[in-house]
Amino acid sequence: MLSLVLLLAATASAQIPSLGWCPDYQPMANFNVNRFLGTWYESERYFTVSELGSRCVKIKYDSTPEGRILVSNEITNSLTGLKRLLEGSMQLIGREGEGRMMIKYTALPGTYDNEFSILDTDYDNYAVMWSCSGIGPVHIQNAWILTRERIPPLMVLQSAYSALERFRISRTFFVRTNQADCNVLPEIAADPALLKGTIEVSIDAKNMHPIPNVEIPIEKKEESKIPPPIVRSAIPEISDEPMKMQEIEIMEKKEEKIEKPVEMKNENMEMKNEKEMEKEKMTDIEKP
């Protein structure tokens, strides 16, 4: 009875039922789960009712110190823009080194398990995930193309398509996941604690992405109070004081030269007058 309930749940979530048993697709050998950890984006998938009207699907695999692997699926509703988080835990099953895993999702009111296989991955660009469940002659298949980039280049998708062809998985029922206009805030708005000023970010309610309206006050640098350095010439400076002293001495000498001739002239005149007076006295004596 429990198996029938699980089959009905799988049939309700997927629209690709097939007759016969599940194909015997061997999962990837030498699978390195540590390299597989991290963030993956859903690029393409089989059509499922549960993901109808969803976009920006992101899956994250994290390991804990206890050795557990936690799974977190983030899905955004295309109509409302609201996000839905589906969490669970992952455990490797099957033979050692196989890319076969069991993911137990926690959802109210109970939990449910899904078995997945990693058919191919290069760990750095793409991964092809597949699952199949069925009872008797009816089975349901699901397949996903996961990429490390939200919008991968064509060469990465070509590598994933090649893996699908090797397993003869038809791409007829694949639909592309809308990864455009996802609500990804820029770093400057995602971590406002790193900013010193006030930041204003407006969000477009329809598209749920930020509109550039960031104003960051620019701090004015304080003017330096240190006086500018004094630039000195390499040529030695000549003081004006010795020049002034030399000029004063030259002026004094000129004054002395001017005064001396006048004094000598006066003395010569006096001597001349005295000689003339003596001469006149002599003439007076000689007169009878």
TrEMBL record:
GO terms for cellular component: cytoplasm. Keywords: Disulfide bond. PANTHER family: APOLIPOPROTEIN D (PTHR10612:SF34). The keyword DNA-binding does not apply. Residues 38-181 form the Lipocalin/cytosolic fatty-acid binding domain. Residues 252-288 are annotated as: Disordered. Gene3D superfamilies: 2.40.128.20. It holds the Pfam family Lipocalin. GO terms for biological process: lipid metabolic process; response to reactive oxygen species. InterPro entries: Calycin, Invtbrt_color, Lipocln_cytosolic_FA-bd_dom. This is (African queen) hypothetical protein. One of its GO terms (molecular function) is pigment binding. It comes from Danaus chrysippus.
